Amino acid sequence: MNKELEIWQFAAEKLKRNESVMLLVVAESSGSSPGRQGFKMIVAEDEIIGSIGGGVMEVRLAEFAKVKSKKAKGKSEFAIVEQVHRKSSANSSGMICSGRQTVIFYRLDSSHLKTIREIISTLENGQPKVLQISNFKFQISDRRAEDFDFKFEQSGENDFLYREKLGFKNRLFIIGGGHCALALSELMSKMDFHISLFDDRAELNTIAKNKFVHHKQLIDCYENIGEFIESGNNIYVVVMTLG
């Protein structure tokens, strides 16, 4: 299962039971920060799913999330926390890998369940929608994303807007469907890639075994393979044919 989808499904299950959870999102990062923009974690009272970078930083922020959620007492709750990965910094994360990251904390309750179900549907159907989180709103937009995967704007301590294009941020086209392509497909399925596979051998059993790609296509020959490959940012092609 796609890790993003799994996180939102976990949140939906908790909210259906009328439990509240804290959503943590890495709004921006720089340098050698282990948490990259868009990383997410859901912190429930007795369970955690996802990651915002790991290590002692993540442990501390998860505990901070639990405290903030309890203090909310049914009210809306959010926070912006900057973490600097240096020991000497005032905002030290406890890690020494250099870099920094900004994390949004946003409390979710049953009032957000409708939006989260829309997010799940969007991810399952591959629709072009945008998640928007701000100090006063949690919603998805029907408009197509502009030319960005993520955008974060902050004009004050508690005034912010985070936008993210939902779904896969990268597309991988694998040309050739043999055993090496099967192994690569399994590896890349654990990352943020929509995977398409092409081959000209209908009888190849490794194509039938490949349950990791999102799209398979048999073609007559590779001469016109360029017609099947999209152009643009975040497009990756791996050639794994016999030749």
Architecture overview:
This protein is α+β, with helices and mostly antiparallel strands and 243 residues long. It has 2 domains: 163 residues, no CATH class; 70 residues, Rossmann fold (3-Layer(aba) Sandwich), CATH 3.40.50. 25% of the residues lie in helices and 31% in strands. The chain is built from 5 helices and 13 strands. The strands form 3 sheets. Strands 3-2-1-5-4 form a 5-stranded antiparallel sheet, with helices on both faces. A 4-stranded antiparallel sheet has the order 7-6-9-8, with helices on one face. Strand 8 and strand 9 form a beta hairpin. The chain is elongated, with a radius of gyration of 20 Å. It starts with a helix and ends with a strand.
Q: Can you describe this structure in just a few lines?
A:
The chain has 243 residues and is α+β, with helices and mostly antiparallel strands. The protein contains five helices and 13 strands.
For the biggest sheet, the summary is: 5 strands, antiparallel
Global shape: elongated
The helix fraction, in percent, is 10-25%
- Low-pLDDT sequence parts: none
Order of helices and strands: HEEEHEEHEEEEEHEHEE
Q: What is the CA-based Rg, rounded?
A: 20 Å
Strand content: 25-35%
Classification by helices and strands: alpha+beta
Q: What is the number of strand segments? A: 13
Nearest-integer average pLDDT: 89
Q: How many individual helices?
A: 5
Q: Strand order of the main beta sheet, please?
A: 3-2-1-5-4
Tally of structural domains: 2
Distance between the termini: 32 Å
Please outline the helices and strands.
Blueprint: H1 3-16, E1 21-30, E2 40-43, E3 48-50, H2 55-72, E4 78-84, E5 100-108, H3 113-125, E6 130-134, E7 138-141, E8 150-154, E9 160-165, E10 170-175, H4 179-188, E11 193-199, H5 205-209, E12 215-218, E13 235-239
